[in-house]
Amino acid sequence: MTTPLAARLARDIAATGPMTVADYMERCLFDPVDGYYTTAEPFGAKGDFVTAPEISQMFGELIGLWAADTWTRLGSPTPFVLAELGPGRGTMMADMLRATRIVPGFLAAARIHLVEASERLREVQRATLSSERIAWKVSLTELPAGPLVLVANEFFDALPIRQFARTPEGIAERMIGLDGERLAFGLRPGARLDEVAQARLAAASAGAILELCPSGLTMAAEIAARIARDGGAALIVDYGHAGAREPAGGFGDTLQGLRAHAYDDPLAHPGTADLTAHVDFGALGDAARAVGARAFGPVAQGLLLERLGLSTRAARLKRDASPETAATIEAAHARLAGPGPDGMGELFKALALVHPALDAPAGFAPDEEMGKVAA
Ligand SMILES: C[S@@+](CC[C@H](N)C(=O)[O-])C[C@H]1O[C@@H](n2cnc3c(N)ncnc32)[C@H](O)[C@@H]1O
Q: CB within 6 Å of ligand 1 — which residues?
């Protein structure tokens, strides 16, 4: 067996039968003994991946200014809850708080909450943000009531997905079982989906895979219901697609492992590789709209950041920088906003959920509202 968790999963499957992809992801990421986020240091050059806030301070600064601008559009409620889901090393929140010092009243009004499931990462965040007054929560449902400005970067892609395939015999769920002693994918026939998902997959071509993220939808609805009730807005940034709104229908297997900055077979290193799936922004937006919030986007990360002032910020930072530092800033600018496989600008997208009385927030245009029929 490749990892201690692989051996334990194989024993469990031999004893109780194949597990869903969602159960497998949950165990790989958060197993209390051998889970990836429980034990590994995933971030940075020595880790497995680099996220946007770790590439450059400019990302967190602009997201911070988005939060402060949104707070102003909400009528500057005091106090309000400033929350981040899945803060990793705490870098983005540190950059957000530094950048928003210039906004009168914002930090004094903010009750800052970080939602983090990993105790180990909570420790890292405590160290990064040691000078700030912050409360930690394990779950979104523990956030206090009141107006909410919430941000989440690369959080929803870590939530467990289920995968369903259209086969000649009907709809089957993709499962993880054993081939000899090795973990292997298989199909469990006779899967039942809700009416909308059933119809979507029934209309797809043979072999199509539909991914559903039940906990992501629950969380989007929870955030949206709070926003609709107490006022507020949320900004969700991640890699993903518009789901059923995509021209090709948003089908496909996007479960992927990431290890030492390279793609990895998702069954190869359970517990020692990161596991993610692309986010279905269309489904998150629909879940939010169903409980009374408005949804804008998804817009490409590059477009969002440029609209928020990335080029101006990069030029300002370069003005006082050495040639080496200026080159680093330029490279970070291209990585955050650029196209193609090396840039995050198109692959990553942003979705905004806002109170029904709020119009398009900064970075989004009015005609980018989800579900709005063009005039
Ligand atoms: C890929 S990291 C992103 C970190 C950070 N936002 C960044 O951009 O660098 C995912 C983060 O979400 C946290 N996380 C994943 N699932 C979670 C859950 N269900 N509840 C709370 N935190 C979770 C992880 O522990 C980690 O901090």
A: 37, 51, 53-54, 86-88, 92, 115-118, 121, 153-155, 158
- Indicate the top mutation candidate among 29, 31, 36, 37 to test ligand 1's pocket, ranked by most ligand atoms within 8 A of CB: 37
What does the block give as tokens for 280? Answer: 């279905």
Integer Cα distance of 55 and 44 in angstroms:
9
Quick one: what percent of the chain has pLDDT higher than 70? 99
Report yes or no on 348 lying in a domain: yes
CATH number at residue 359: 3.40.50.150
Q: How far is the CA of 167 from the centre of ligand 1 (A)?
A: 34
Residue 141, classed as helix, strand or coil, is helix
**Which is the closest atom of ligand 1 to the Cα of 91?**
9
Alpha carbons 328 and 163: distance in angstroms, whole number = 40
Number of structural domains the chain divides into: 1
Distance (Å, rounded) from C-alpha 232 to C-alpha 156?
19
Q: Which of 29, 221, 212 is nearest to 141 (CA)?
A: 221
| 175 occurs within a structural domain | no
Rounded Cα distance, 160 and 165, in Å: 17
pTM: 0.96
Q: Are 295 and 369 spatial neighbours (Cβ–Cβ below 8 Å)?
A: yes
* Residue 239, domain member (yes or no): yes
CA–CA separation, 186 vs 287, rounded Å? 30
Question: 287-322 pLDDT, tens per residue?
Answer: 999 999 999 999 999 999 999 999 999 999 999 999
Counting every residue, how long is the chain?
Answer: 375
Minimal CA–CA distance to 210: which of 176, 252, 179, 173? 252
Cα(205) to ligand 1 centroid in Å equals 34
Spatial separation of the C-alpha atoms in residues 119 and 107, rounded to whole Å: 26
